[in-house]
Design brief:
six-stranded mixed sheet; alpha+beta; three-stranded antiparallel sheet; 115 residues
Amino acid sequence: MSRTIEFTENTLILHLTGLTSLAALKRQLEIPYSAIKDVAIEDFKVSLLQFRVGTSIADIREGRFMLTDKWSFISYENHKDVIVLRLIDHEFESVVFQINNLEEVKSRILERISK
């Protein structure tokens, strides 16, 4: 998969590679654990017509999307079963991404934010 997660002491880093990074116009996204107020696994469908800076083709969403009055960062090829991070005091209101081992990733994030 073209997305990986790195867990550092204070920050979760979402790494994007290959065509995914080109489509999203971003190679990595750093999120302090202190900015994560909620983590969930959801079906997160975004309209093809949503205002964006990035790519929206078929079910592929990559980049920055204006879903409310704030930007969200989205990176998936399938809207079903994605990680959704709801954030505070960050440039993005939420970060949504597809990754392998959803439950394991969610558990590791919850572990880090509960410290």
